[in-house]
């Protein structure tokens, strides 16, 4: 079954989603299976289920997970998750509105993810080496941007 396509986003909705990603969200590469290469994931976590349901209505794609806390004082957390090509498509639409290191990560992913991720999951040694460089650069990005901010303040 083919993954669902994202709905067309208005500029306002793209900016709103970018704000949610900047504030409550994550752009990352994660291991979903042991021994497999990392996959692109864009997620938004919040305790307000209705907020995440509105994200579904805007995007037309739906995967929300819930996690109950063992602490009675904490509310149930929910996470809206997009992965791989759906996540890439969403990042492409939100890019002008993202800020901070998340915008830099999105640019890097948009430029490199497809060409470094074969659909069949089979990597040549050369492609695997390029992908490992890409992953390393991706995860170094947050630290290097924070370091730049510190050095420009002094």
UniProtKB/TrEMBL annotation:
Gene3D superfamilies: Homing endonucleases. This is Homing endonuclease LAGLIDADG domain-containing protein. SUPFAM superfamilies: Homing endonucleases. GO terms for molecular function: endonuclease activity. Pfam families: LAGLIDADG_3 (PF14528). It comes from the Bacteria. InterPro entries: Homing_endonucl (IPR027434), LAGLIDADG_dom (IPR004860). It comes from Candidatus Lloydbacteria bacterium RIFCSPHIGHO2_02_FULL_50_13. Coiled coil: none annotated. Residues 13-89 form the Homing endonuclease LAGLIDADG domain.
